[in-house]
Design a protein that fits this description.
The chain is an alpha+beta fold. Helices cover 26% and strands 20% of the residues. The longest helix has 17 residues. The protein starts with 22 loop residues before the first helix and ends in a 28-residue tail after the last helix. It binds iron/sulfur cluster (2 copies).
Length: 361
């Protein structure tokens, strides 16, 4: 006789998301009729049953103290029956079933310095990586730049006056834990020098085969330095990715004088109208200038304003550039075109189909 299957208990992987659905979402799952944006940062979903779910979106710091998280949880209990979520770009979304609680919630958020907005034709919160706070291979900071940029662009978060959605991302090195490859504007930390090998420490703390294998461009080879086993880097083949530094702290890559920031434009995840796009290089280097990174802030504002002035309604950054052409984009933004803008990377075919979007070309 077949044995009864026993449910396997495991703590591997996340719990099933259905466990966390607010009751109104569980009841109306797959049965929403429409949604509309009522005012900046506030939208309502209406179900076939007539049920209504209001969402209030607030911007917040991505790196949060436990006190901030507890405060958000208390607000959620007070106004939302305990239901909120963080979006993939780190917006805080409060989910309400009582319309009369929307304005008191917004008032309390604003009183505590949390702006409300980021829905529809606006900039939503900037998704970012760890930066100098946490990651060893960062070429720039993350939360520091994002704070400076959003302080400057806050008008575009709390109002809906842009032509379309604008998604900004920051990654502090080209391993890109952030959505830098597919955002309208991307701020990307870059190293510009190959790793410096510490031949004294390397044999003591690193496994040489692992170090050699860590390099995506095969730029590392084992060598003897005197009587010590070590490695050598072919600097022409190095793309400053920091993978070797990740597995071997004796291959330091961070360089306060040469590390900095590049700006990329035109990526998107959405397949509305046109297929998803990768971001492309706009500015090859800006210096690290903490604590407020004025060069980066000015560069991002300039690109936002050129797009806001010239884009058609709902046109995303990449669609706008495709329509006007790259030469015109460089003209309008005043960004200098350099040899670094020439895409000569040989290893990814231009013919790869990168989405399931149907198009005639
Ligand atoms: Fe670390 Fe790079 Fe990720 Fe930043 S983007 S958190 S430096 S791996
Ligand atoms: Fe290779 Fe990247 Fe290290 Fe350069 S930084 S040697 S490309 S692993």
């Amino acid at each position: 006789m077949a044995e009864q299957a026993v449910e396997r208990l495991t703590d591997i992987g996340p719990p099933h998301y259905e466990k966390f659905l607010p009751p109104i979402v569980a009841t109306n799952y797959g049965k929403w009729r429409y949604h509309e944006v009522l005012k900046p940062g506030v939208m309502v979903h209406v179900g076939e049953s007539g049920d209504k779910l209001w969402t209030v979106r607030a911007g917040g710091p991505r790196l949060m103290s436990i006190h901030t998280i507890r405060w958000i949880a208390d607000l959620t209990d007070k106004y939302c029956g305990g239901h909120m979520r963080f979006t993939s770009r780190n917006n805080i979304e409060f989910l309400l079933t009582e319309e009369e609680k929307i304005d008191p919630l917004i008032a309390e958020l604003k009183e505590n310095g949390f702006p409300v907005g980021g829905i529809r034709n606006s900039i939503s919160s900037i998704v970012h990586t760890q930066g100098w706070v946490h990651c060893h291979s960062a070429a720039t900071d993350a939360s520091g730049i994002v704070k400076a940029v959003m302080d400057d662009l806050i008008e575009y978060f709390v109002e809906m006056k842009l032509p379309g959605k604008l998604r900004i991302a920051l990654a502090c090195c080209l391993n890109m834990c952030g959505a830098v490859h597919c955002s309208d504007i991307a701020i990307l930390g870059i190293h510009r020098r190959p790793p410096k090998v510490d031949h004294e420490r390397l044999p003591k703390i690193c496994e040489i085969p692992t170090v050699v294998a860590s390099c995506p461009t095969a730029a590392i080879k084992p060598v003897m330095v005197g009587d010590k086993r070590s490695v050598e880097v072919n600097e022409d083949a190095c793309m400053y990715c920091a993978n070797c530094y990740t597995v071997c702290p004796a291959m330091r890559l961070n360089d306060p004088l040469n590390d900095g920031v590049s700006i990329w434009v035109g990526g998107k995840v959405s397949n509305a109208r046109t297929e998803p796009k990768f971001s492309k290089l706009a500015i090859d280097y800006l210096p690290n200038n903490p604590p407020r990174w004025p060069e980066v802030v000015d560069a991002v504002r300039n690109i936002v304003e050129v797009w806001a002035k010239h884009a058609k309604r709902y046109e995303r950054m990449g669609e706008f550039i495709d329509r006007i052409g790259w030469p015109k984009f460089f003209d309008l933004t005043g960004i200098e075109f350099t040899k670094y803008h020439i895409d000569d990377f040989r290893l990814a075919g231009t013919t790869y189909k990168r989405s399931t979007h149907m198009s005639s070309f």
